[in-house]
Structures are given as C-alpha cells and as structure tokens.
Write a structure and sequence with these properties.
By secondary structure, this protein is an alpha+beta fold. The chain contains 2 helices and 5 strands. The longest helix is centred in the first third of the chain and has 16 residues.
Amino acid sequence: MKTEIAFILDRSGSMESMTHAAISGFNEFLSAQKSTVDDSGQPIPATFTLILFDDEYLPIPCRGPIQNAVPLAANAYQPGGSTALLSLPKEWKTGKTKFGPDTHRITAKK
C-alpha cells in the first residue's frame, strides 16, 4: 500500500504569535512519521509534501520519500498575509491533484 502525506501549514499573519509552536509541531510530526515502522521493523515507505498557505499556496519543492524530508527551519516559515484556505482550488478539495516539483504557486482569487 502506498502512503502519501500532504502537510498543509497555515503561514498567515494570525500564526505569527505561534511561529515557534508551528515549527516545532511540524518537526515533531515529521520525526514521528519517519520513525514509524511495520511489523518487521522496517520503515513504512511514504511520499511527503509540505504546503504553506496564506493568501497564496506555496508547495515546497520537497515531494518525495519521507525519509528525505528535512525539518522546517525558521527562515522557511515566516507568517504574513491573509488566509485563503476556503478558496482552495477545486482540484485540491477533490484530491484530483498530485503535488510535485512541477506544481506552481497558486494565488487565491480575490
């Protein structure tokens, strides 16, 4: 069975007071997923994607094996902008889009 994890993280201005908690929470989640093993003690293969959003959606170009994913650093997560989660593209809401290095920044319609 294939496992695909897409972690969607709010980076709007309202997250500014929670920057440290967001970064540490993400990093703890990533670490826990990387250390998940099957019954024989082997790491469970998974594909991982990180998407940051405010009034834009920014897929971080890191889609790939979760074992290759790196922790989130403070310089990569800087809250600002407004929130546009409710105007996600229809394809994202229906799961018909695969995230990957060819994914482009999508700006929410105003």
